[in-house]
Amino acid sequence: MDPDAPLGVFDSGLGGLTVVRALRERCPAENIVYLGDTARVPYGTRSAETVVRYAIGCARVLVNRGVKAIVVACNTVSAVALDMLRVELDRPVLGVIVPGARAAVAAAEGGAVGVLGTTGTITSGAYPRAVASLSTRTEVFGQPAPLLVSLAEEGWLEGEVPRLVSQRYLEPLVRAGVRCVVLGCTHFPLLQRVIEAEAASLAGAPIPIVDSASATADDVAAFLTERGQRTTRSGRGKLELFVTDLPKSFSTVAERFLGEPLGDVHQIDL
Amino acid sequence: MDPDAPLGVFDSGLGGLTVVRALRERCPAENIVYLGDTARVPYGTRSAETVVRYAIGCARVLVNRGVKAIVVACNTVSAVALDMLRVELDRPVLGVIVPGARAAVAAAEGGAVGVLGTTGTITSGAYPRAVASLSTRTEVFGQPAPLLVSLAEEGWLEGEVPRLVSQRYLEPLVRAGVRCVVLGCTHFPLLQRVIEAEAASLAGAPIPIVDSASATADDVAAFLTERGQRTTRSGRGKLELFVTDLPKSFSTVAERFLGEPLGDVHQIDL
Protein backbone atom coordinates (compact mmCIF):
# COMPACT_ATOMS: atom_id res chain seq x y z
CA MET A 1 0.00 0.00 0.00
CA ASP A 2 0.95 3.63 -0.49
CA PRO A 3 2.17 4.92 2.91
CA ASP A 4 0.54 8.25 2.08
CA ALA A 5 -2.89 6.64 1.83
CA PRO A 6 -5.17 7.63 4.72
CA LEU A 7 -5.91 5.60 7.82
CA GLY A 8 -9.53 4.45 8.03
CA VAL A 9 -11.28 4.59 11.40
CA PHE A 10 -14.86 3.57 12.09
CA ASP A 11 -17.22 3.37 15.03
CA SER A 12 -20.92 2.80 15.58
CA GLY A 13 -21.27 6.51 16.31
CA LEU A 14 -19.18 9.45 17.43
CA GLY A 15 -17.39 7.94 20.44
CA GLY A 16 -14.63 6.66 18.16
CA LEU A 17 -13.57 10.27 17.68
CA THR A 18 -11.72 9.92 21.01
CA VAL A 19 -9.52 7.37 19.18
CA VAL A 20 -9.09 9.84 16.28
CA ARG A 21 -8.08 12.48 18.81
CA ALA A 22 -5.43 10.14 20.28
CA LEU A 23 -4.24 9.20 16.76
CA ARG A 24 -3.89 12.85 15.80
CA GLU A 25 -1.75 13.44 18.88
CA ARG A 26 0.37 10.33 18.28
CA CYS A 27 0.63 10.42 14.42
CA PRO A 28 -0.27 14.02 13.53
CA ALA A 29 0.77 13.85 9.87
CA GLU A 30 -1.50 10.93 8.93
CA ASN A 31 -4.61 11.65 6.89
CA ILE A 32 -7.65 10.04 8.51
CA VAL A 33 -11.02 9.05 7.08
CA TYR A 34 -13.58 8.47 9.83
CA LEU A 35 -16.95 6.78 9.43
CA GLY A 36 -19.51 7.00 12.24
CA ASP A 37 -22.56 4.79 11.68
CA THR A 38 -24.80 7.31 13.43
CA ALA A 39 -27.94 5.94 11.73
CA ARG A 40 -27.54 2.61 13.54
CA VAL A 41 -25.79 3.61 16.78
CA PRO A 42 -25.54 2.05 19.36
CA TYR A 43 -24.16 -1.36 18.44
CA GLY A 44 -23.64 -2.30 22.12
CA THR A 45 -27.18 -3.62 22.54
CA ARG A 46 -27.40 -5.52 19.21
CA SER A 47 -26.91 -9.24 18.58
CA ALA A 48 -23.46 -10.40 17.43
CA GLU A 49 -24.77 -11.31 13.95
CA THR A 50 -26.12 -7.80 13.45
CA VAL A 51 -22.89 -6.19 14.68
CA VAL A 52 -20.81 -8.29 12.25
CA ARG A 53 -23.07 -7.36 9.32
CA TYR A 54 -22.95 -3.65 10.17
CA ALA A 55 -19.18 -3.69 10.74
CA ILE A 56 -18.46 -5.27 7.37
CA GLY A 57 -20.61 -2.61 5.70
CA CYS A 58 -18.68 0.18 7.44
CA ALA A 59 -15.27 -1.33 6.69
CA ARG A 60 -16.08 -1.70 2.98
CA VAL A 61 -16.81 2.05 2.73
CA LEU A 62 -13.33 2.76 4.07
CA VAL A 63 -11.66 0.19 1.80
CA ASN A 64 -13.40 1.83 -1.16
CA ARG A 65 -11.85 5.13 -0.10
CA GLY A 66 -8.38 3.61 -0.40
CA VAL A 67 -7.30 3.43 3.25
CA LYS A 68 -4.03 1.66 4.08
CA ALA A 69 -5.31 0.13 7.34
CA ILE A 70 -8.54 0.04 9.33
CA VAL A 71 -8.81 0.97 12.98
CA VAL A 72 -11.96 -0.35 14.61
CA ALA A 73 -12.59 2.41 17.15
CA CYS A 74 -15.50 0.57 18.74
CA ASN A 75 -15.25 -1.84 21.62
CA THR A 76 -18.36 -3.78 20.62
CA VAL A 77 -17.11 -4.39 17.07
CA SER A 78 -13.60 -5.17 18.35
CA ALA A 79 -15.18 -7.65 20.77
CA VAL A 80 -17.26 -9.64 18.29
CA ALA A 81 -16.30 -8.87 14.67
CA LEU A 82 -12.53 -8.47 14.37
CA ASP A 83 -11.79 -11.97 13.05
CA MET A 84 -14.59 -11.77 10.53
CA LEU A 85 -13.35 -8.36 9.30
CA ARG A 86 -9.84 -9.78 8.83
CA VAL A 87 -11.28 -12.62 6.77
CA GLU A 88 -13.44 -10.35 4.63
CA LEU A 89 -11.04 -7.47 3.93
CA ASP A 90 -7.63 -7.29 2.31
CA ARG A 91 -6.41 -4.59 4.70
CA PRO A 92 -4.80 -4.76 8.15
CA VAL A 93 -7.48 -4.40 10.83
CA LEU A 94 -6.61 -3.11 14.32
CA GLY A 95 -9.04 -3.07 17.23
CA VAL A 96 -9.18 -1.30 20.61
CA ILE A 97 -9.40 -4.27 22.97
CA VAL A 98 -5.99 -5.91 22.66
CA PRO A 99 -4.10 -2.61 23.10
CA GLY A 100 -6.28 -1.75 26.11
CA ALA A 101 -5.76 -5.21 27.62
CA ARG A 102 -1.99 -5.04 27.08
CA ALA A 103 -1.71 -1.62 28.73
CA ALA A 104 -3.90 -2.86 31.60
CA VAL A 105 -1.81 -5.97 32.28
CA ALA A 106 1.29 -3.76 32.42
CA ALA A 107 -0.35 -1.21 34.70
CA ALA A 108 -1.80 -3.81 37.08
CA GLU A 109 1.68 -5.26 37.78
CA GLY A 110 0.40 -8.76 38.39
CA GLY A 111 -2.77 -7.65 40.17
CA ALA A 112 -6.35 -7.93 38.93
CA VAL A 113 -7.76 -5.76 36.13
CA GLY A 114 -11.15 -4.02 36.19
CA VAL A 115 -13.00 -3.09 33.00
CA LEU A 116 -15.75 -0.50 32.57
CA GLY A 117 -17.67 -0.89 29.28
CA THR A 118 -21.06 -1.11 27.63
CA THR A 119 -23.23 -4.10 28.50
CA GLY A 120 -22.38 -5.62 25.10
CA THR A 121 -18.62 -5.36 25.57
CA ILE A 122 -18.66 -6.72 29.10
CA THR A 123 -20.96 -9.69 28.41
CA SER A 124 -18.91 -10.58 25.30
CA GLY A 125 -16.00 -11.56 27.55
CA ALA A 126 -13.58 -9.97 25.09
CA TYR A 127 -11.39 -8.28 27.71
CA PRO A 128 -10.95 -11.43 29.85
CA ARG A 129 -10.03 -13.32 26.65
CA ALA A 130 -7.55 -10.66 25.53
CA VAL A 131 -5.98 -10.48 29.00
CA ALA A 132 -5.77 -14.29 29.22
CA SER A 133 -3.84 -14.39 25.94
CA LEU A 134 -1.26 -12.02 27.48
CA SER A 135 -1.08 -13.25 31.06
CA THR A 136 -2.76 -16.40 32.30
CA ARG A 137 -2.57 -15.33 35.94
CA THR A 138 -4.34 -11.99 35.70
CA GLU A 139 -7.91 -11.93 36.97
CA VAL A 140 -10.37 -9.65 35.14
CA PHE A 141 -13.54 -8.12 36.59
CA GLY A 142 -16.01 -6.47 34.19
CA GLN A 143 -18.63 -3.86 35.05
CA PRO A 144 -21.25 -2.71 32.52
CA ALA A 145 -21.50 1.08 32.85
CA PRO A 146 -24.13 2.34 30.37
CA LEU A 147 -24.87 5.57 32.22
CA LEU A 148 -21.30 6.76 31.66
CA VAL A 149 -22.09 6.73 27.93
CA SER A 150 -25.03 9.08 28.42
CA LEU A 151 -23.05 11.36 30.73
CA ALA A 152 -20.31 11.71 28.09
CA GLU A 153 -22.85 12.45 25.37
CA GLU A 154 -24.67 14.98 27.58
CA GLY A 155 -21.35 16.62 28.50
CA TRP A 156 -21.94 16.14 32.24
CA LEU A 157 -18.26 15.57 32.90
CA GLU A 158 -17.90 16.83 36.44
CA GLY A 159 -19.92 17.36 39.60
CA GLU A 160 -22.09 15.23 41.80
CA VAL A 161 -23.90 13.11 39.19
CA PRO A 162 -20.84 11.75 37.32
CA ARG A 163 -19.16 11.30 40.71
CA LEU A 164 -21.99 9.18 42.12
CA VAL A 165 -22.47 7.19 38.91
CA SER A 166 -18.73 6.43 38.71
CA GLN A 167 -18.71 5.51 42.37
CA ARG A 168 -21.55 3.03 41.90
CA TYR A 169 -19.86 1.33 38.94
CA LEU A 170 -16.38 1.35 40.49
CA GLU A 171 -17.42 0.07 43.90
CA PRO A 172 -17.63 -3.66 42.97
CA LEU A 173 -14.32 -3.41 41.08
CA VAL A 174 -12.51 -1.81 44.00
CA ARG A 175 -14.08 -4.35 46.37
CA ALA A 176 -12.69 -7.10 44.12
CA GLY A 177 -9.24 -5.56 44.61
CA VAL A 178 -8.44 -4.51 41.02
CA ARG A 179 -5.06 -2.82 40.57
CA CYS A 180 -5.99 -0.94 37.40
CA VAL A 181 -9.19 0.04 35.57
CA VAL A 182 -9.53 -0.02 31.76
CA LEU A 183 -11.87 2.46 30.10
CA GLY A 184 -13.36 -0.15 27.77
CA CYS A 185 -15.63 2.23 25.85
CA THR A 186 -14.59 5.04 23.55
CA HIS A 187 -16.88 7.47 25.39
CA PHE A 188 -15.16 7.13 28.74
CA PRO A 189 -11.92 9.12 28.24
CA LEU A 190 -14.09 12.24 28.64
CA LEU A 191 -14.85 11.13 32.18
CA GLN A 192 -11.34 9.96 33.00
CA ARG A 193 -10.69 12.64 35.63
CA VAL A 194 -13.81 11.89 37.71
CA ILE A 195 -13.32 8.10 37.36
CA GLU A 196 -9.72 8.45 38.51
CA ALA A 197 -10.70 10.54 41.52
CA GLU A 198 -13.51 8.20 42.57
CA ALA A 199 -11.37 5.09 42.17
CA ALA A 200 -8.67 6.64 44.37
CA SER A 201 -11.20 7.73 46.94
CA LEU A 202 -12.85 4.29 47.11
CA ALA A 203 -9.53 2.41 47.24
CA GLY A 204 -7.75 4.81 49.58
CA ALA A 205 -4.88 5.05 47.07
CA PRO A 206 -4.56 5.93 43.38
CA ILE A 207 -5.55 3.21 40.88
CA PRO A 208 -4.10 3.58 37.36
CA ILE A 209 -6.75 4.23 34.72
CA VAL A 210 -5.97 2.84 31.26
CA ASP A 211 -7.53 4.70 28.36
CA SER A 212 -7.93 2.22 25.48
CA ALA A 213 -8.03 5.10 22.95
CA SER A 214 -4.45 6.16 23.81
CA ALA A 215 -3.29 2.54 23.98
CA THR A 216 -4.77 1.95 20.51
CA ALA A 217 -3.06 5.03 19.05
CA ASP A 218 0.27 3.75 20.41
CA ASP A 219 -0.39 0.38 18.79
CA VAL A 220 -1.31 1.90 15.43
CA ALA A 221 1.84 4.06 15.46
CA ALA A 222 4.01 1.01 16.22
CA PHE A 223 2.27 -1.04 13.54
CA LEU A 224 2.80 1.63 10.85
CA THR A 225 6.46 2.06 11.80
CA GLU A 226 7.16 -1.71 11.71
CA ARG A 227 5.56 -2.02 8.27
CA GLY A 228 7.23 1.08 6.86
CA GLN A 229 3.76 2.51 6.35
CA ARG A 230 4.07 5.88 8.09
CA THR A 231 3.21 8.77 5.84
CA THR A 232 6.09 10.56 4.15
CA ARG A 233 4.31 13.90 4.47
CA SER A 234 4.89 16.27 7.33
CA GLY A 235 2.58 18.90 8.77
CA ARG A 236 -0.93 18.31 10.01
CA GLY A 237 -2.88 15.51 8.28
CA LYS A 238 -6.38 15.98 6.92
CA LEU A 239 -9.43 14.62 8.69
CA GLU A 240 -12.52 13.68 6.70
CA LEU A 241 -15.70 12.65 8.51
CA PHE A 242 -18.48 10.48 7.13
CA VAL A 243 -21.70 9.74 9.01
CA THR A 244 -24.78 7.71 8.08
CA ASP A 245 -27.17 10.17 9.71
CA LEU A 246 -26.75 13.71 10.97
CA PRO A 247 -28.05 13.65 14.53
CA LYS A 248 -29.44 16.90 15.91
CA SER A 249 -26.65 17.68 18.32
CA PHE A 250 -23.99 16.34 15.97
CA SER A 251 -21.46 19.20 16.06
CA THR A 252 -21.48 19.69 19.83
CA VAL A 253 -21.10 16.00 20.61
CA ALA A 254 -18.55 15.38 17.83
CA GLU A 255 -16.32 18.28 18.88
CA ARG A 256 -16.50 17.20 22.51
CA PHE A 257 -15.10 13.77 21.54
CA LEU A 258 -12.66 15.03 18.92
CA GLY A 259 -11.27 17.91 20.95
CA GLU A 260 -10.86 20.15 17.88
CA PRO A 261 -13.21 21.88 15.42
CA LEU A 262 -14.78 19.56 12.84
CA GLY A 263 -13.51 19.53 9.27
CA ASP A 264 -15.58 18.30 6.33
CA VAL A 265 -18.61 16.23 7.26
CA HIS A 266 -20.37 14.12 4.62
CA GLN A 267 -23.54 12.12 5.02
CA ILE A 268 -23.70 8.74 3.23
CA ASP A 269 -26.16 5.83 3.03
CA LEU A 270 -25.19 2.29 4.00
CA MET B 1 -62.79 -3.44 10.58
CA ASP B 2 -63.50 -6.41 12.82
CA PRO B 3 -63.68 -5.08 16.40
CA ASP B 4 -62.04 -8.28 17.54
CA ALA B 5 -58.93 -7.56 15.45
CA PRO B 6 -55.91 -6.68 17.60
CA LEU B 7 -54.59 -3.20 18.34
CA GLY B 8 -51.17 -2.55 16.81
CA VAL B 9 -48.61 -0.65 18.89
CA PHE B 10 -45.09 0.23 17.83
CA ASP B 11 -42.09 2.04 19.22
CA SER B 12 -38.44 2.46 18.32
CA GLY B 13 -37.58 0.08 21.14
CA LEU B 14 -39.03 -1.21 24.38
CA GLY B 15 -40.12 2.06 26.03
CA GLY B 16 -43.48 1.82 24.25
CA LEU B 17 -44.28 -1.12 26.52
CA THR B 18 -45.27 1.47 29.15
CA VAL B 19 -48.07 2.43 26.74
CA VAL B 20 -49.00 -1.27 26.35
CA ARG B 21 -49.07 -1.54 30.14
CA ALA B 22 -51.46 1.43 30.37
CA LEU B 23 -53.60 -0.01 27.52
CA ARG B 24 -53.84 -3.36 29.27
CA GLU B 25 -55.06 -1.61 32.42
CA ARG B 26 -57.54 0.57 30.51
CA CYS B 27 -58.78 -1.96 27.86
CA PRO B 28 -57.80 -5.36 29.31
CA ALA B 29 -59.76 -7.49 26.81
CA GLU B 30 -58.08 -6.11 23.68
CA ASN B 31 -55.53 -8.26 21.89
CA ILE B 32 -52.35 -6.31 21.24
CA VAL B 33 -49.55 -6.80 18.73
CA TYR B 34 -46.44 -4.82 19.70
CA LEU B 35 -43.46 -4.11 17.46
CA GLY B 36 -40.25 -2.71 18.97
CA ASP B 37 -37.67 -1.71 16.37
CA THR B 38 -34.83 -2.71 18.70
CA ALA B 39 -32.36 -3.08 15.81
CA ARG B 40 -32.61 0.65 15.06
CA VAL B 41 -33.37 2.17 18.46
CA PRO B 42 -33.09 5.03 19.37
CA TYR B 43 -34.99 7.15 16.86
CA GLY B 44 -34.65 10.29 19.03
CA THR B 45 -31.25 11.22 17.58
CA ARG B 46 -32.06 10.50 13.89
CA SER B 47 -33.04 12.95 11.18
CA ALA B 48 -36.77 13.44 10.47
CA GLU B 49 -36.48 11.74 7.03
CA THR B 50 -34.97 8.63 8.60
CA VAL B 51 -37.62 8.52 11.34
CA VAL B 52 -40.43 8.75 8.77
CA ARG B 53 -38.93 5.92 6.70
CA TYR B 54 -38.45 3.67 9.73
CA ALA B 55 -41.94 4.44 11.07
CA ILE B 56 -43.66 3.53 7.80
CA GLY B 57 -41.76 0.24 7.77
CA CYS B 58 -42.91 -0.59 11.32
CA ALA B 59 -46.52 0.41 10.67
CA ARG B 60 -46.72 -1.79 7.56
CA VAL B 61 -45.72 -4.85 9.61
CA LEU B 62 -48.68 -4.17 11.91
CA VAL B 63 -51.10 -3.54 9.04
CA ASN B 64 -50.03 -6.87 7.52
CA ARG B 65 -50.94 -8.54 10.82
CA GLY B 66 -54.52 -7.23 10.50
CA VAL B 67 -54.61 -4.64 13.28
CA LYS B 68 -57.73 -2.45 13.58
CA ALA B 69 -55.80 0.69 14.60
CA ILE B 70 -52.21 1.73 15.17
CA VAL B 71 -50.93 3.35 18.33
CA VAL B 72 -47.59 5.11 17.85
CA ALA B 73 -46.08 4.58 21.30
CA CYS B 74 -43.05 6.71 20.52
CA ASN B 75 -42.80 10.44 21.11
CA THR B 76 -40.24 10.95 18.35
CA VAL B 77 -42.40 9.25 15.70
CA SER B 78 -45.53 11.00 17.01
CA ALA B 79 -43.63 14.29 16.76
CA VAL B 80 -42.44 13.99 13.17
CA ALA B 81 -44.20 11.18 11.28
CA LEU B 82 -47.88 11.04 12.29
CA ASP B 83 -49.26 12.91 9.26
CA MET B 84 -47.19 10.85 6.87
CA LEU B 85 -48.36 7.60 8.49
CA ARG B 86 -51.99 8.71 8.13
CA VAL B 87 -51.41 9.40 4.43
CA GLU B 88 -49.66 6.09 3.81
CA LEU B 89 -51.87 3.68 5.78
CA ASP B 90 -55.57 2.85 5.60
CA ARG B 91 -55.88 2.45 9.38
CA PRO B 92 -56.57 4.94 12.15
CA VAL B 93 -53.26 6.16 13.64
CA LEU B 94 -53.09 7.51 17.20
CA GLY B 95 -50.01 9.15 18.73
CA VAL B 96 -48.86 9.95 22.26
CA ILE B 97 -48.31 13.70 22.00
CA VAL B 98 -51.83 15.09 21.56
CA PRO B 99 -53.22 13.04 24.50
CA GLY B 100 -50.30 14.14 26.67
CA ALA B 101 -50.72 17.79 25.65
CA ARG B 102 -54.49 17.67 26.34
CA ALA B 103 -54.00 16.17 29.80
CA ALA B 104 -51.29 18.75 30.51
CA VAL B 105 -53.41 21.74 29.52
CA ALA B 106 -56.16 20.46 31.84
CA ALA B 107 -53.76 19.84 34.73
CA ALA B 108 -52.00 23.22 34.39
CA GLU B 109 -55.31 25.10 34.85
CA GLY B 110 -54.25 28.03 32.69
CA GLY B 111 -50.63 28.02 33.87
CA ALA B 112 -47.52 27.10 31.90
CA VAL B 113 -46.70 23.51 30.92
CA GLY B 114 -43.26 21.90 31.22
CA VAL B 115 -42.20 18.96 29.07
CA LEU B 116 -39.41 16.45 29.73
CA GLY B 117 -38.45 14.43 26.64
CA THR B 118 -35.63 13.20 24.43
CA THR B 119 -33.60 15.82 22.58
CA GLY B 120 -35.42 14.86 19.36
CA THR B 121 -38.88 15.32 20.83
CA ILE B 122 -38.08 18.64 22.47
CA THR B 123 -36.32 20.20 19.47
CA SER B 124 -39.16 19.08 17.17
CA GLY B 125 -41.49 21.56 18.91
CA ALA B 126 -44.30 18.99 18.76
CA TYR B 127 -45.57 19.62 22.30
CA PRO B 128 -45.75 23.42 21.92
CA ARG B 129 -47.64 22.89 18.63
CA ALA B 130 -50.05 20.39 20.18
CA VAL B 131 -50.66 22.65 23.19
CA ALA B 132 -51.16 25.70 20.94
CA SER B 133 -53.86 23.84 19.01
CA LEU B 134 -55.74 23.30 22.30
CA SER B 135 -55.10 26.54 24.13
CA THR B 136 -53.49 29.60 22.56
CA ARG B 137 -52.61 31.13 25.91
CA THR B 138 -50.67 28.28 27.45
CA GLU B 139 -46.90 28.70 27.52
CA VAL B 140 -44.79 25.56 27.04
CA PHE B 141 -41.23 25.03 28.28
CA GLY B 142 -39.31 22.00 26.99
CA GLN B 143 -36.33 20.31 28.62
CA PRO B 144 -34.32 17.56 26.87
CA ALA B 145 -33.66 14.87 29.49
CA PRO B 146 -31.63 12.06 27.85
CA LEU B 147 -30.14 10.73 31.08
CA LEU B 148 -33.61 9.82 32.35
CA VAL B 149 -33.82 7.35 29.45
CA SER B 150 -30.63 5.60 30.57
CA LEU B 151 -31.73 5.56 34.20
CA ALA B 152 -35.01 3.87 33.24
CA GLU B 153 -33.18 1.29 31.12
CA GLU B 154 -30.64 0.62 33.87
CA GLY B 155 -33.43 0.30 36.43
CA TRP B 156 -31.97 3.01 38.66
CA LEU B 157 -35.40 4.23 39.71
CA GLU B 158 -34.71 5.59 43.16
CA GLY B 159 -31.91 7.02 45.26
CA GLU B 160 -29.46 9.87 44.91
CA VAL B 161 -28.57 9.61 41.19
CA PRO B 162 -32.14 9.73 39.76
CA ARG B 163 -32.94 12.41 42.34
CA LEU B 164 -30.05 14.67 41.27
CA VAL B 165 -30.60 14.06 37.55
CA SER B 166 -34.32 14.86 37.87
CA GLN B 167 -33.49 17.93 39.92
CA ARG B 168 -31.12 19.23 37.26
CA TYR B 169 -33.66 18.76 34.47
CA LEU B 170 -36.62 20.09 36.47
CA GLU B 171 -34.87 23.16 37.85
CA PRO B 172 -35.24 25.37 34.70
CA LEU B 173 -38.89 24.28 34.34
CA VAL B 174 -39.74 25.13 37.94
CA ARG B 175 -37.86 28.44 37.62
CA ALA B 176 -40.04 29.20 34.57
CA GLY B 177 -43.08 28.68 36.80
CA VAL B 178 -44.67 25.64 35.09
CA ARG B 179 -47.87 24.39 36.72
CA CYS B 180 -47.61 20.84 35.40
CA VAL B 181 -44.90 18.61 33.91
CA VAL B 182 -45.57 16.16 31.04
CA LEU B 183 -43.49 12.99 30.85
CA GLY B 184 -42.91 13.30 27.11
CA CYS B 185 -41.00 10.04 26.68
CA THR B 186 -42.31 6.53 27.11
CA HIS B 187 -39.40 5.65 29.43
CA PHE B 188 -40.23 8.23 32.05
CA PRO B 189 -43.29 6.72 33.80
CA LEU B 190 -40.81 4.39 35.55
CA LEU B 191 -39.28 7.46 37.19
CA GLN B 192 -42.56 9.22 37.92
CA ARG B 193 -42.26 8.94 41.70
CA VAL B 194 -38.80 10.55 41.93
CA ILE B 195 -39.72 13.24 39.35
CA GLU B 196 -42.87 14.08 41.32
CA ALA B 197 -40.95 14.32 44.59
CA GLU B 198 -38.19 16.51 43.12
CA ALA B 199 -40.66 18.82 41.38
CA ALA B 200 -42.54 19.31 44.64
CA SER B 201 -39.34 19.91 46.56
CA LEU B 202 -38.04 22.48 44.05
CA ALA B 203 -41.37 24.29 43.76
CA GLY B 204 -42.25 24.13 47.45
CA ALA B 205 -45.65 22.63 46.53
CA PRO B 206 -46.83 19.62 44.51
CA ILE B 207 -46.75 19.98 40.71
CA PRO B 208 -49.02 17.57 38.78
CA ILE B 209 -47.08 15.13 36.61
CA VAL B 210 -48.85 14.01 33.42
CA ASP B 211 -47.90 10.57 32.14
CA SER B 212 -48.49 10.55 28.37
CA ALA B 213 -48.76 6.72 28.37
CA SER B 214 -51.89 6.83 30.57
CA ALA B 215 -53.31 9.79 28.66
CA THR B 216 -52.83 7.87 25.40
CA ALA B 217 -54.53 4.75 26.77
CA ASP B 218 -57.53 6.91 27.77
CA ASP B 219 -57.61 8.36 24.26
CA VAL B 220 -57.44 4.95 22.58
CA ALA B 221 -60.27 3.64 24.80
CA ALA B 222 -62.45 6.66 23.94
CA PHE B 223 -61.65 6.31 20.23
CA LEU B 224 -62.58 2.61 20.14
CA THR B 225 -65.83 3.25 22.02
CA GLU B 226 -66.88 6.12 19.70
CA ARG B 227 -66.24 4.01 16.63
CA GLY B 228 -67.94 0.87 18.04
CA GLN B 229 -64.58 -0.87 17.72
CA ARG B 230 -64.12 -2.27 21.24
CA THR B 231 -63.58 -6.00 21.26
CA THR B 232 -66.65 -8.16 21.93
CA ARG B 233 -64.53 -10.66 23.89
CA SER B 234 -64.13 -10.55 27.63
CA GLY B 235 -61.29 -11.84 29.77
CA ARG B 236 -57.65 -10.92 29.37
CA GLY B 237 -56.49 -10.11 25.84
CA LYS B 238 -53.41 -11.69 24.26
CA LEU B 239 -50.16 -9.81 23.90
CA GLU B 240 -47.78 -10.68 21.07
CA LEU B 241 -44.35 -9.04 20.91
CA PHE B 242 -42.21 -8.56 17.81
CA VAL B 243 -38.70 -7.10 17.86
CA THR B 244 -36.18 -6.47 15.10
CA ASP B 245 -33.24 -7.51 17.26
CA LEU B 246 -32.97 -9.33 20.57
CA PRO B 247 -30.83 -7.11 22.77
CA LYS B 248 -28.83 -8.81 25.50
CA SER B 249 -30.83 -7.58 28.46
CA PHE B 250 -34.12 -7.83 26.57
CA SER B 251 -36.27 -9.69 29.10
CA THR B 252 -35.25 -7.65 32.13
CA VAL B 253 -35.75 -4.31 30.41
CA ALA B 254 -38.97 -5.37 28.66
CA GLU B 255 -40.58 -6.69 31.86
CA ARG B 256 -39.57 -3.55 33.71
CA PHE B 257 -41.49 -1.43 31.18
CA LEU B 258 -44.40 -3.83 30.71
CA GLY B 259 -44.94 -4.56 34.39
CA GLU B 260 -45.91 -8.20 33.74
CA PRO B 261 -44.13 -11.33 32.49
CA LEU B 262 -43.50 -11.39 28.73
CA GLY B 263 -45.63 -13.54 26.47
CA ASP B 264 -44.50 -14.71 23.03
CA VAL B 265 -41.53 -12.83 21.59
CA HIS B 266 -40.70 -13.11 17.89
CA GLN B 267 -37.74 -11.64 16.05
CA ILE B 268 -38.34 -10.26 12.55
CA ASP B 269 -36.30 -8.43 9.93
CA LEU B 270 -37.33 -5.04 8.60
From TrEMBL, chains A, B:
One of its GO terms (biological process) is regulation of cell shape. Pathway: Cell wall biogenesis; peptidoglycan biosynthesis. Its EC number is 5.1.1.3. The keyword Isomerase applies. It catalyses: L-glutamate = D-glutamate. InterPro entries: Asp/Glu/hydantoin_racemase (IPR015942), Asp/Glu_race (IPR001920), Asp/Glu_racemase_AS_2 (IPR033134), Glu_race (IPR004391). GO terms for molecular function: glutamate racemase activity. Substrate binds at D11, S12, Y43, G44, N75, T76, T186, H187. The active site is at C74 (proton donor/acceptor), C185 (proton donor/acceptor). Keywords: Cell shape, Cell wall biogenesis/degradation, Isomerase, Peptidoglycan synthesis. It is an enzyme of class 5 (isomerase). It comes from the Bacteria. HAMAP family: Glu_racemase (MF_00258). Belongs to the aspartate/glutamate racemases family. Provides the (R)-glutamate required for cell wall biosynthesis. This is Glutamate racemase. The lineage of its organism: Bacteria, Pseudomonadati, Myxococcota, Polyangia, Polyangiales.
